[in-house]
Amino acid sequence: MGQDKYSHPYVETATGVLGQVDAQAIPRYAGIGTFARLPQRHEVDDYDIAVVGVPFDSGVTYRPGARFGPAAIRQASRLLKPYHPALDVTPFATAQVVDAGDIAANPFNIDAAVDEIRVGIRGLLSRPGHKVVLLGGDHTIALPALQAVNEVHGPVALVHFDAHLDTWDTYFGAPCTHGTPFRRASEQGLLVKDHSAHVGIRGSLYDRADLLEDAELGFTAVHCRDIDRIGIDGVIEQVLARVGQYPVYVSIDIDVLDPAFAPGTGTPEIGGMTSRELVAVLRAMRSLNIVGADVVEVAPAYDQAEVTAVAGANLAYELISLMVG
Amino acid sequence: MGQDKYSHPYVETATGVLGQVDAQAIPRYAGIGTFARLPQRHEVDDYDIAVVGVPFDSGVTYRPGARFGPAAIRQASRLLKPYHPALDVTPFATAQVVDAGDIAANPFNIDAAVDEIRVGIRGLLSRPGHKVVLLGGDHTIALPALQAVNEVHGPVALVHFDAHLDTWDTYFGAPCTHGTPFRRASEQGLLVKDHSAHVGIRGSLYDRADLLEDAELGFTAVHCRDIDRIGIDGVIEQVLARVGQYPVYVSIDIDVLDPAFAPGTGTPEIGGMTSRELVAVLRAMRSLNIVGADVVEVAPAYDQAEVTAVAGANLAYELISLMVG
Amino acid sequence: MGQDKYSHPYVETATGVLGQVDAQAIPRYAGIGTFARLPQRHEVDDYDIAVVGVPFDSGVTYRPGARFGPAAIRQASRLLKPYHPALDVTPFATAQVVDAGDIAANPFNIDAAVDEIRVGIRGLLSRPGHKVVLLGGDHTIALPALQAVNEVHGPVALVHFDAHLDTWDTYFGAPCTHGTPFRRASEQGLLVKDHSAHVGIRGSLYDRADLLEDAELGFTAVHCRDIDRIGIDGVIEQVLARVGQYPVYVSIDIDVLDPAFAPGTGTPEIGGMTSRELVAVLRAMRSLNIVGADVVEVAPAYDQAEVTAVAGANLAYELISLMVG
Amino acid sequence: MGQDKYSHPYVETATGVLGQVDAQAIPRYAGIGTFARLPQRHEVDDYDIAVVGVPFDSGVTYRPGARFGPAAIRQASRLLKPYHPALDVTPFATAQVVDAGDIAANPFNIDAAVDEIRVGIRGLLSRPGHKVVLLGGDHTIALPALQAVNEVHGPVALVHFDAHLDTWDTYFGAPCTHGTPFRRASEQGLLVKDHSAHVGIRGSLYDRADLLEDAELGFTAVHCRDIDRIGIDGVIEQVLARVGQYPVYVSIDIDVLDPAFAPGTGTPEIGGMTSRELVAVLRAMRSLNIVGADVVEVAPAYDQAEVTAVAGANLAYELISLMVG
Amino acid sequence: MGQDKYSHPYVETATGVLGQVDAQAIPRYAGIGTFARLPQRHEVDDYDIAVVGVPFDSGVTYRPGARFGPAAIRQASRLLKPYHPALDVTPFATAQVVDAGDIAANPFNIDAAVDEIRVGIRGLLSRPGHKVVLLGGDHTIALPALQAVNEVHGPVALVHFDAHLDTWDTYFGAPCTHGTPFRRASEQGLLVKDHSAHVGIRGSLYDRADLLEDAELGFTAVHCRDIDRIGIDGVIEQVLARVGQYPVYVSIDIDVLDPAFAPGTGTPEIGGMTSRELVAVLRAMRSLNIVGADVVEVAPAYDQAEVTAVAGANLAYELISLMVG
Amino acid sequence: MGQDKYSHPYVETATGVLGQVDAQAIPRYAGIGTFARLPQRHEVDDYDIAVVGVPFDSGVTYRPGARFGPAAIRQASRLLKPYHPALDVTPFATAQVVDAGDIAANPFNIDAAVDEIRVGIRGLLSRPGHKVVLLGGDHTIALPALQAVNEVHGPVALVHFDAHLDTWDTYFGAPCTHGTPFRRASEQGLLVKDHSAHVGIRGSLYDRADLLEDAELGFTAVHCRDIDRIGIDGVIEQVLARVGQYPVYVSIDIDVLDPAFAPGTGTPEIGGMTSRELVAVLRAMRSLNIVGADVVEVAPAYDQAEVTAVAGANLAYELISLMVG
């Protein structure tokens, strides 16, 4: 399969799934770029995990540009290899992972776009085992993602890595922006009450009430300034205790990383996590049942030497590896 | 005035108007940056020309970022000096020019934004002599600018510098985007029939019909490929013949310049005008009655060494100089 | 076709060919990026023109990086639209144009790579009507391209746009580098004797003999410094007179453009052509029988805001339009 | 106030002070940019803390460009919000904070500039409660700042964050450069003997004597390489023990941060502090009586995606928050 | 010579002079970089033309950074080859050209620096045939260069390529800055009265008097806006007529080029010359007796892909070629 | 010596060796740039440590460009000063350190290049005390470096800092690439069996077997993810225990640093070491007998504000300081 009908010689693995394009046959920088040089959705019969781009950034309040996030992350993902040594998994052989392309979302109408994204993701979750990893796009897209996941799994626990709470109410009258998805998700009952956590919070806020309201909505927050005190092990402990046994949705705003590690984003905040810390927390979540995830707010126009896009690609790879782990 | 009450020692000119901050007293790189280091609107009793930012870019179809255009153009405008040798005018002494700040426009609702921009510009045109130069922002803002100008002056002739026609109909169902302002303006009767011109058109189109419909809407187009044939003098002749004696609105999409001269924009097209050509055409328009103008689509995230923003600042300076000439 | 089986809703044109992804359905910045959002080779039964990437840059003598040229040009080609107004053609409806992906070439062995590229291109020319547009890659690739074209068409006339002659003999003992393809081609009898031309030559040389030997090999050169004297019309006249009625191969080294228009390349030379001039020359070649072409030496690591990649994409579009014209 | 007379709708806080422009009314990216979108000095009757730019960089020994620091920091400060959760303060409501514009300093005569800066800052300290936060400019400006502060408060304890000691003697015969302010300050009796500390020192030196002389001048140094050994708590302990109960001046050379966190500076040294560490040390200083402070050596021409300018803006925000804490 | 004693295998030419490092033996990107990979001054017994860096930028009024100009131009000059086809000369074989290193100039005291530069250049002109090409640094250095040239040759005709007149009087009290060298030179009798010309002037001025005073000082100006009217031939005619038979000093401020061609400079002005035009004017000056020259205001921190530095290197190469022509 | 004969006034130190150019006489940004402004090899009679560039990058599998590494590191090394406080050594006074220029290596033939590099380095090790620090170039160069070192010292212990193992077998049939030097070195008996260590390993691999084969080849690996668990002290302990008393070769691939600290490299991996960590490990190796070392994979085209080049220069400085310690 593949070699005859399609342009890329995907490696057919022992488990029968179609893996990446063979890097010994085609250099990594060559070929039309799917995520991790994996097959497209239509090139396989079925899949376990679909990586899908959501190039939508009309919900941003400061620097736009995340609409080019999926293209940049795909380009940066050419460096990903099949074996994940820290988790000791070979994700693209263990599961059929595909690049499902991008969901087209209306750039001029947020409500329409949210609906299009929800429908698009729902379509990727057509059987129970289907899992999805979104490449944003701005954080607005987490709301329709949670809506779609909810239709399949019911309320989920959320593990949300971000510099910001994203539980504001409205901005310029708009209920759905990149600063509001988790308030909306909470209001719509998409989250298991009191089993969600923010990790990496920092930076100035509008008001002390921001924190109080966030707690009332059922979130707990691990602030960045706590990390040195409780250590990464402490962070992991808090996260695992919080989510319990529920199905989990993981949302990673790339700005959870310090701007040194992720300059290409819209609302940078100093004092952030290092990529080593973030990866350590993620890898500790291997026992969880992650049913969906996103990596958002990669804005390539502000990136340098693909540093942010490479981070985005690797974080998606970590998420996939957790899903198959 | 100024020195006591405000932070900047504006030069009080012989004509009584308040000019730029004195560059012999305060280095050009110093001070909070208004356009050309001119007084703000509230620092003078009245004004002749108001420069106003419109940081709105929710109407773009490709690269966003022009919302940071006004800030970048202001920063780049620090280099502007009081005397324009080619036109032999001293615009900031001849007329009271002010920086009227930015118009706040809803980033999440194009229709609301268009209305806010129209109201904002209308407010700057409170007496007949008032003229306005907009710093965009994407090209969507030309529509509310023309609406406001129309309320004062009635239909105007449009001289539109751009790589693109901007007379498309809708895009993703939206009637007001950066690709549609002049079709809407034509439909709304804001333009004097058959007295408007596009200059600098080039690049691929959707269909041959794009050109036909544009002509039906009452526009004529000077294509970039014609310039070498008819020369800049030929371009000038066509433009002047077209607009006649009507009041004129000049709209400059920075992408009328070749990407070499203006890389920091959203939809670059090769084969464009040089800045020397553009300036030559503009200066030939000194006899026209320009009642309003804009410089749009400067997207700083794609700029290099302020090349595009410097172009934007100088083009605004040319427009002001024409208005006082 | 297309919509069901493949991920992208390609426009099915009146002529029956499968065109670009519909920009009214999917925003230009969305979707896995083929050249101009055209179908891949395996998505159609046959094709007229194949666009193919050749990500090989091991033949460079100064700045490497053109191996990322195909990916960058594809990304920049998202802005291309179906109708070419200057030539009044709709290339993607008139002919079936496809993205044939990239040819894998050995980065560590130039001779092996040259052979792989020749075989790859030959495979794309499997019936007489097939035409090919290469996206480089460094200029080394023009040699195997000419070899493959020769197998089908016999000797061709070459129109070569470049700052450099590329007829040097060897460099560090290597006969095939980006500075030597056209000496090798001449020696191998791939070119019709005395019917080939360089356009845009400039910059310092090793020796006066470089020019003499180039002439002896059967080339004529239009130097950049001649353009202002003879005009673009003069350049066109010389080119057309030179190539006569022979089948033509067009090779465009992006450094034929001045570094202002194409900073992202390996061996920049000042005093180059503008993109407007280059496009004007190309469009005058519409009567020629162009059987193959390339756009090479786009090195994205040195690019700014995709200026060079956008030029590369548009030049490929011009070439395709000439081929269908 | 504000709305009628001035261009920006500053939030009038419950405490009667005029705060930031309302981000719900005017997007953060809009409006002429004062620091943190705060009122200018002339827009309020009096103030508690004045933020003032000092765009002077004629004292640098390597990369210049910090003269554009104030403009870049102001632009980056648009993201600052009113509430500081880690310190639990609302600085712009607790105190009247203003942007006092820039001090004009002669770029061609260091001695004249030092005097102009001293006079300028002294003018901002016209009553005992006035505090000042300088935005540099290069580190030369710390000397006149200390001179002005001394006129009001007498000798102060200095907490100096920097990769470099800045206690060299002369360079090319000049006594006042960015490498010498604290030797001069010590010689001029501006510092309380033996109560000043450098934090973050690292990199190569001219001579072992540099350290000895620095100690003789009354400084102690916390080297970057000590941080992993003694921890941030150890650093804090040393700093607090050192400064005692004296009024404190805090001087932050942005190069105390590792170049990863602050690439946009003049003399980068590897092995630096992270922004999280720096902020942790600063926040532990809340009990101190900080009477003046600076953030210097932000050189925007070397910055990437405003990473350094955002750091500068946030550090100024931390300093203001400490002053009101 | 050379190969044994020094690290680089310079080509010994038929004329006995020591030329560039052999590009067939050592790749252009290799080796410690002198200008054009030429010998250093101490590696030859005598020389005809000395290229010398003057890394001084303390005279700038806006963006600093030209102190890194010589290093950047040297790096970019690696691409220069021995034969100049347009002038049909082999400059490095016809004359002994050397890289004389950099003149150390005090960055903190302009007067001291001017004197150091004058002495340094005078030292390079120790016999009548010696000629010098300076690599700036800012335009301040043209004054000491003219002083040194005057000591040898007496008053000279100046051909000055620049966007700006550089005949202002003082700025912040300083008589020697990058805006004043030619007024000082005129006052000091360094120029032959009424035989000097500015070429490429454009942009806004302080006052109409700027032009009048410039004319009174004995200059004529070819404005950029004239070029399209009189053509390059007209420019050449005016320049040649102006300088007559006098010894000539050529001063090239890189900002005479449009920012598209030279973004890396301190005070960019739109509407400038193309590099092709500039080179055409220069080449027409081959009959002149050029005794000294400079290329100034290359500020690498604002450059992109070495575009500006490559222009600087090539312009120095043109000047050298004219000197030997 | 030096001042008379050569262009730079090197400091003659008390120990009789010729040190850096005097920074009080010539500003750091001035002068033709050798590494750390040290003498060239031919400017001294003999030397202890030779710093030598190896601008070769034809062995890379992804982003090329390290051929410009030596030039960029030299330029960034201008900031290095003579005294290393952490190690309390004055390396350029304790030992005669020279810049031996670059080794010319064939860019088109890897085998030839490997041989040229081996010969070049061997030539620098002409007496037992000679030590060498290589500035790469890509990691391919470590193989000929080890071969040359072996000829003098026999098998050595390797301390290898890298994100990648670099013990792959072949890639596209080539045995010598930047991914294979240490497998080849092991096979060729260049390493003391079981006394070599990788430090900083991370990122995805091709197969679990990669790790097993690496161990079979005699390597141990300290993974980046272990650092937080065992601490830098633990890393040091493992390294020291591993290398024992053997002569040591230290190879630093700059990508051992996180991309935040070294964006300018070819195959970035997130989750890397900080420069503070790396320097701490290096400094703990002062008791070792380091006979040779390299710093490789600095690719300037991807760098930002010289961050990576500055790291490369400082790491070379650390290595030299260890060699003299």
From TrEMBL, chains A, B, C, D, E, F:
One Pfam family linked to the record: Arginase
InterPro entries associated with the record: Agmatinase-rel (IPR005925), Ureohydrolase (IPR006035), Ureohydrolase_dom_sf (IPR023696), Ureohydrolase_Mn_BS (IPR020855)
Alphabetical UniProt keywords: Hydrolase, Metal-binding
Recorded GO MF terms: agmatinase activity
Keyword Signal: no
Family annotation (PROSITE patterns): ARGINASE_1, ARGINASE_2
EC number, as in UniProt: 3.5.3.11
Similarity annotation: Belongs to the arginase family. Agmatinase subfamily.
Protein name stated in the entry: Agmatinase
Classification of source organism: Bacteria, Bacillati, Actinomycetota, Actinomycetes, Mycobacteriales
